[in-house]
Amino acid sequence: MMNAPTLRDGGVASARGWVTVALLLVAATLVSMVLDQHVALMSQAMVYVLAVVIASYRLRWIESAVCAVGAVTALNFFFVPPRWTFVVENRELFIGLATMLVVALVISHLATRLRRESETARLSERRARQLQGLSTDLASVASPAEVLSLGQQALDAAFAGPCTLVLANDRHELTDAAAVPASVPASVLDGLRCCMNEAAVLGPGTGRWPGLNAWYLPLGDKARTIVGAACVRPALSGDTEGREHAQALCALLAQSLWRLRLSASVVAAQGEMQRHQLQSTFLAAVSHDLRTPLAAIVGAASSLRTQRDRLPLPDQDRLLDSIVNEASYLTEVTENTLQFVRLSSSEQALRRDWESIEEIVGAVLARVRQRDPQRRIKSRVAGGLPLVRADPVLLAQMLGNLLDNALKYSDGAIDLTVGGTGVAGVSANGQELEIAVKDRGPGVPEADQDAIFEPYARGEQSGHRGAGLGLAVCRAIVAAHGGRLTLRRRSGGGSCFTASLPIEAQPTAKDLP
Amino acid sequence: MTLRVLVVEDDREIRALMQSSLAVEGFDVQTAASLSEAGALLRHDPPDVIVLDLGLPDGDGAQLVREVRRQQSVPIIVVSARHQEAQKIALLDAGADDYLTKPFSVGELLARIRVALRHRGTALAAAVTVHELDDLRIDLAAHVVQRAGETLHLTPTEFKLLARLVRSAGRVVTHRQLLADVWGPEFTEHTHYLRLYMAQLRAKIERDPAEPRHLLTETGVGYRLADA
Asked: Residue A420 in contact with residue A386, Cβ under 8 Å?
């Protein structure tokens, strides 16, 4: 039998078979002895034939053959005259015994073949069902890892094993340490590599490497790509159906993996397209934000150069102011753009240290107050706040952007509050530090509340130009610190931007000299 | 005597701008477009103050700063872009006196130069023992700190920290310099000490610690005691 469990149970099964043979013969002999006084020899022979038929039906061919020989011998010994000898006196009786032996053997042979065929049919049906189930399961998987685990389960269920299933990396190699579990022996790994290179099944009955004790099957074929390989045990050269089943399983797995790779490349292509789109809007917006102030600067400066003598002094001052203002606006745009690109690219240049948020607020206010002569910004910093592990220059830029925006887009008072979510002075993990900037401006419509954090998606109301990248940079900075920047409408009008930063375990300061 | 300024800057426009604005203020201005040119000028004719741009084409400004510091105490002011904190700090720790962030106004440049010149020479620096601004009075020799005539009580470490800033009043002092001078060279990485002590000092000295008037933060670089 080629199915694994039967193979594994072979030893036990045959022992039980021989016992059954012995029991059947003993039973037939006993029954015949009981009947001895009442029936003819022919009926006793029939009892033995019955035992042989039962043995043929239930047991292997060799066991039933032995049973048949045993039955004839027992009949001869116990019942055929002269009894208690192996001598056959009567020629007719001899023919009877011989016929019985032949009949027993024929029945046994037929029964065994019938049984083997029906078992083969059952096995084929089980395998067909397994293939069907696997293909249904594979239809819904989303990752190669799931395919791997389903595939391993299927192989383990179908074969005694140990079976190995590995996936190749994108370059169709098995070198990835992560892709190949360490438990796979080097010899198996060589076989897997070899079958992938040859794109063919190796092992007993395949004509390639028949000396192996396992089948090595590639997942996929040369025409498409080979995405992995499997090692299946046990492998018998005569077990064509078993090998075909293993191949069918591997084909299903390969198909599923191809499907996953295809959809992954589709997603990548879409991402690439979106990035291109973003890049061009980005460029368009940046160039707008750069050209407008540049035009103003060139205009004012050239006007001063050619008309200075005729311009009254206040007008000259106005032009000079406009040059300084536009230029500092350009600086701001440049800073934000640079920072945005820096934060978006993978190499994040965070220079973290233990920082006091109160200090950063103080430094930012000192700078922003130059644009806030009426002191509209009211700051309130809670006492005893814990230190944060942060890049101070980035946090200052974030806070500066938020305050500049509030000054630009609103007229009334602006509240800057800094506090912890828990009690002031907390140092436990999981706490957050909140920096909130609240204005009484027109606010941001509910629908735009996410969009304004996108680069160059400006609130519609703005006749002002370009916070452009400001909020996108702010969000990127807060995110780089493991926090989040949120916006909500204030009751009574205006916006509230809140940056929440995680508070880490504080450095020890008890040994402070 | 006319004070001489050496401007090391590779951009022609900015060089010309600095030259004219400093000349108007009565300085005798020399310019160099590269480190090698600056080196030659320095050997030939040492100036009273150096304005050094970061990111010159022919190499690292720190080299020049160290070279100058070996022989002379001439003040050096570093000019840099924002986000060049690491290089700025390296130059300050190598011996530069102060820094300016681009873009800067001519007014800021003049103010920095004035402060740098005031600290010129070791004899002069040692003499700075009294610092007065607004209603704050710090007398290092007498160990007294007063606000509006009222004596403030500082711990010994707080006083050491404040004294270190007074000796460089008006100039930036990097975290590393403060930690090394107040706590010792082995504490230069313990920035959190500074944060905690600076908060305590501000709470005692400042009227509004959240918007300090005296103990200014140079974000990512160090601290500066305001002197004007």
From this structure: yes
Of the candidates A363, A509, A513, which has its C-beta nearest B157's C-beta?
A: A513
Subunit contact A509:B196, Cβ cutoff 8 A: yes
Structure tokens, A119: 């078992």
The Cα A101–Cα A281 span in angstroms is 95
- With CA atoms as reference, the chain A residue closest to B216 would be A363
Q: Do the Cβ atoms of B224 and B170 come closer than 8 Å?
A: yes
Residues 6+ apart with CB under 8 A from B180: B187, B188
Three state DSSP letters for A450-494: CHHHCCCCCCCCCCCCCCCCHHHHHHHHHHHCCCEEEEEECCCCC
Task: Write out the two tokens for A400.
Answer: 């500066």
Q: What is the mean pLDDT of chain B?
A: 87
Compute the nearest-CA separation of B113 from chain A (Å). Answer: 21
How crowded is the C-beta side of B121, counted as CA atoms within 13 Å?
7
pLDDT digits (tens, 9 = 90+) for B136-170: 999 988 999 999 989 999 999 999 999 999 988 88
Half-sphere exposure of A162 (CA within 13 A, CB side): 5
Give CA A275 to chain center in angstroms.
25
For the record, the structure tokens of A373 come out as 């002569």
Q: How far apart are CA A328 and CA B151, in angstroms?
A: 43
Sign of the CA dihedral running B20, B21, B26, B29: negative
Please count the other Cβ atoms lying within 10 Å of the Cβ belonging to residue A496.
Answer: 18
CB contacts of A512 in chain B (<8 Å) are: 193, 196
Please give, rounded to a whole number of angstroms, the shortest distance from the CA of B161 to a CA of chain A: 12
The CA distance from A500 to A436, in Å, is 9
> Which amino acid appears at position A3 of this protein?
N
Interface contact flag, A351 B86, Cβ < 8 Å: yes
What is the signed CA dihedral for A19, A22, A23, A26, rounded to 10 degrees? -160
Instruction: State the amino acid at position A395 in one-letter form.
Output: L
Cα of A320 vs its chain's centroid, Å: 61
Candidates B83, B105, B187, partner chain A, best to mutate (most A CBs within 10 A)? B83
Q: Is the peptide bond before B46 cis (omega within 30 degrees of 0)?
A: no
Q: How many residue pairs from chains A and B have C-beta atoms closer than 8 A?
A: 71
Tokens 């741009």 map to which residue? B53
Q: Mutual orientation of helices A313-344 and A240-307 as an angle, nearest 10°?
A: 170
* Amino acid at position A119, single letter: E
Among candidate residues A442, A450, A438, A440, the one with its CA nearest the CA of residue A496: A438
The whole-angstrom separation of Cα A386 and Cα B85 is 24
* Contact status, residue A252 vs residue A131, Cβ threshold 8 Å: yes
pLDDT value at A458 more than 60: no
Min distance A357 CA to chain B CA atoms (Å): 10
Instruction: Give A393's contacts in chain B (Cβ within 8 Å).
Output: 82-83, 85, 219-220
Of all residues in chain B, the one with the smallest CA distance to A418 is: B210
More confident residue, A511 or A21: A21
Q: What is the rounded CA–CA span in Å between residue A321 and residue A486?
A: 35
pTM above 0.95, yes or no: no
Separation between Cα atoms, residue A295 and residue A75, nearest integer Å? 122
Is B195 in contact with A360 (Cβ distance < 8 A)? Answer: no
A290: three-class secondary structure by DSSP: helix
